[in-house]
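The passage that follows is intended for readers who have already worked through the single-chain material. We present the inputs for a multi-component assembly, then the predicted structure in tokenized form, and finally a short commentary. You are encouraged to pause after the input and sketch how you expect the pieces to fit together before reading on.
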Amino acid sequence: MYNITLLLDPRAKTPMYEQLYRYFVEEIRSGHLRQGEKLPSKRAMCAHLGVSRSTVETAYALLCSEGYVNARAKSGFYVSGFVMLETMPALPCRPIMTEIQRTERPEFDFSTASVDTGGFPYSSWSKLNKEVVYSSPELLQIGERQGDAALRNALCEFLGEYRGVKCAPGQIVVGAGMEYLSMLLLSLLPENAVFALEDPGYASIYHTVRHAGRPLRPVPIDAHGMSVSELESSGATVAYTTPSHQFPMGVTMPAGRRSELLRWAAGGDGRYIIEDDYDSEFRYGLRPVPAMQGMDAAGRVIYVGTFSRSVAPSIRIAYMVLPEALLERYRSINGFSRSTVSRYEQAVMARFLSEGFYARYLRRVGNLYSRRREALIAALESIDGVRVSGSGGGIHFLLTNPRFSEHELLRRAAGQGIALRGLSSFCRECVAEPSTLVVGYGGLDDKKISQAAEMLRLAWK
Amino acid sequence: MYNITLLLDPRAKTPMYEQLYRYFVEEIRSGHLRQGEKLPSKRAMCAHLGVSRSTVETAYALLCSEGYVNARAKSGFYVSGFVMLETMPALPCRPIMTEIQRTERPEFDFSTASVDTGGFPYSSWSKLNKEVVYSSPELLQIGERQGDAALRNALCEFLGEYRGVKCAPGQIVVGAGMEYLSMLLLSLLPENAVFALEDPGYASIYHTVRHAGRPLRPVPIDAHGMSVSELESSGATVAYTTPSHQFPMGVTMPAGRRSELLRWAAGGDGRYIIEDDYDSEFRYGLRPVPAMQGMDAAGRVIYVGTFSRSVAPSIRIAYMVLPEALLERYRSINGFSRSTVSRYEQAVMARFLSEGFYARYLRRVGNLYSRRREALIAALESIDGVRVSGSGGGIHFLLTNPRFSEHELLRRAAGQGIALRGLSSFCRECVAEPSTLVVGYGGLDDKKISQAAEMLRLAWK
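Having made your guess, compare it with the prediction:
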């Protein structure tokens, strides 16, 4: 039998049962006690150590519940047959700090990537989360490739009701963020596709297309959005567009241009429109325009959206609605893939949508942005020379001040500690409207608006 | 002023404040009440409708909290400037059912993809979740590209202590599942890389490499794992291997073969080993072998792992440890990417690791699998002709029964309603050991083990 050499210290801070527990853990880890070996009986232990039965019982129960030891009925306690390697690392890990700690946030945050999450409904989200974790053990198992049915059903309802999207839940594919989904989508589109991207436009979509080794054509934006005549002459076959609130110009594509684009898509084999419904959640003053997808009779529009701006940047759930032909292709080439989104988060988001929390949250945040936008525009336009455009939706607009060049506007703002971006930095081949900056107000605290405007007034004197 | 035409019904089931609330919602939705328009004062409403002040107050408070209306101090209530489109969908969404409802699970589940989640610590997970949601509002904002520091620090500690991995948290990249991470990794490896994949081996890695358009060479497995001489002669430059418990052969690569592989990698420019530490969490009888990564002095091993098998398939957190050269490349080409994993789930997993829940859970599940494995092997080996191999780790092994051909073994098992897979189905160019099946026991209920073995005994009489 296994020989025990241990003295328990009844005066130590560590309770005796824990001293005994730790002793056995060390013996097992070091290999002194080997798999399958029997521990002394409780009675023998009590007698040997001169401790109470409850001390030994507690220690053995801990060893069992932690998986070091198995109890066999009418036989005793055995070191379990399962082993985990435990070594001390050669070098202790030197923990890193988060980037948030490392880089300070600017005092006046005009970044277009910022989103206000101050009104996030923690208690509802947390309550849904708890209910989902407890009530749905099946969510631990493999989910559906395209995303779980509950979330796709809820998305289908929501997009139909609020965006005029016409689809069945079976056409929806859910994925971990827009970049991932873009990569996936590129692999579904025809091999000889040539991509028309908005110019000026998103840097990240340029990056994704280039990274996938696919040919791209920057296509200029006019007052109605992507120019269809320029699209025609570019020779591109797939047009990526942000019709609700073009980034960065802020143009909302009118119905006429949408029809033209749809006609273009229906007019050639393998032509598609990727409708990124960016910023459609927030419209001010005018009624929102329904999605192009709902007007598409030819099955040429891929509708894409995300919760990263409308709920929170850290929530990695994006979605796309595939037309029939691409859905078939998705199914034929993605036999091995699994959904990239946690099923728990899918289930929480499904209830967040279907139980009305999302619509309520959007209204609340939308109101906040609306008030902030009004105050900011009023403050900025009171500065000599400044005018604002593209502010009908979303959480950014353009600011033009012809008194200085773009470079000089930026330089002077930077002198006051204000970081802004010039419109020209979003251009590939286009020539940006002169003296124009892109102003995001998602990250700008209400209180700072007049302060920031005051500083810009000084800077641009 | 806005003209109100409404009669409240004091005998209706719907409380009067809600009737009033609903009336205004409809007026706003339909456009009768427009943005910026002022609602009648509370006093005027009370007088006009002949209702109590509290009825009007409740209705107005609801309208404010739902974002339809804004209160302006000392002025009154105004329809908010923010609008959401609300249309009725042309076609109501026809909800789909989950695949779990559609396809029945087999009674005896010998699939190698199954994982037992019966012991999942719901209450700890849920408690961590709740704390994280409430206490970390900053987690709503954009996280770190490679994964949040807390999770990478915890992973670094854990992999160092339990797997002998030597790395800094800065080398770790976290992503939404192994397939996504494999895609990402492929894009970092040299453009002229040729991939050696284990044969027999994982179907999904073949798919990923092929899908990325990269050349691949199936390399045979011998009794020690991937054959280095065959690897040499294949001309491949990147070797993908599962040394802890080769899938599907179940071989554990001994130290000698690991050294040979490391020498091979160090011996040529652009050579790398992808060490998929699949199934390393579960070892029976023998002490686990530390990861090759910890023995690599040349910076040629990429260590990859996932929580999909060790915690639950639905948790989409995989990780890789990049050597310096690839880390630089990652940083240079992924400037636009964001982490694909929810920051909440990252934070929960970080605490699950660093507070010891994970190690405890692994011991508990490991014990369960260990007992199940013993019982299943004993039951199967009592069948005439059957022997078992590759069972030293993980949650699957090989079963050989030379009395019948593989095809006949499967056919007869299917006759008893038992679905199994033949080893040959995992072969590309290799010739599988005859009469051999791959048996997964992660999804096999303890109670069903003797029953399933009994049915196989009948089937293979």
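Commentary: The CA atoms of residues 408 and 435 of chain B lie 8 Å apart. The radius of gyration of chain B is 30 Å. How closely did your sketch match?
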